[in-house]
Amino acid sequence: MLLQALREEVLEANLELVRRGVVVFTFGNVSGISRKDGLVAIKPSGVPYEELTAEQIVVTDLDGRIVDTNLRPSSDLPTHLELYKAFPNIGGVAHTHSEHGTAWAQARRPIPCFGTTHADYFHGPVPVTPDMTAEEIESEYEKATGEVIIRTFRDLDPDAIPGVLVSGHAPFCWGKSAGDAVHNAAILEYVARLATHTIALDANAEPLSRPQHDKHFFRKHGPGAYYGQPGDL
Ligand SMILES: [Zn+2]
Known about the structure:
Layout: H1 4-19, E1 28-34, E2 39-42, E3 58-61, E4 66-68, H2 77-86, E5 92-96, H3 99-106, H4 116-119, H5 134-138, H6 141-152, E6 163-165, E7 171-175, H7 178-201, H8 210-220
Antiparallel strand pairs: 1-2, 1-5, 2-3, 3-4, 5-7, 6-7
Helix pairs in contact: 1-7, 2-6, 3-7
The structure holds zinc ion.
């Protein structure tokens, strides 16, 4: 089987998405990339998670041409491909319609960093994309979804903010691997839920101070990181 290890990792990451409670039915998909081979492995379209096997994971090139299996890939594949092409350090992408993250996407509001849980993972608010134009929606919708995410990150670092809310749609997250992308998707949902509760308790809640935000982010990320054990991150 072509890219067996990557397909098994992508299968496991898709199942983890279900275990973390961030997908309902088949509304979610995870992919992983082999940068060396220039190939992407992604969940097939519409297959129930409980029936998914590594053989069914679809392998395509970066232009979306299927190179293995006869199933159709997730319809969101073109979004994943745009992200892999634009963000060179990422190794996995996860898309969900998780409840709170999707609510913030529907409210078209970036998620402010209200606390250290958020700051540990996202160096800044979780951004929301602008609305897509009619032409973008009517032409290559899924590719255009990737393009609007990339435009949103024109002045942001995707390695420091591993997720986004697509306006009126839902979150897309990424990470060093498929499993890492799923981890970030579950964290984004938790952070979104905390933010919902925070503004319910205090509609005028202030974001975390910049020094505390930076402290939490940089103790886990970058050259000065000291949280956890060497090699954890
Ligand atoms: Zn979606």
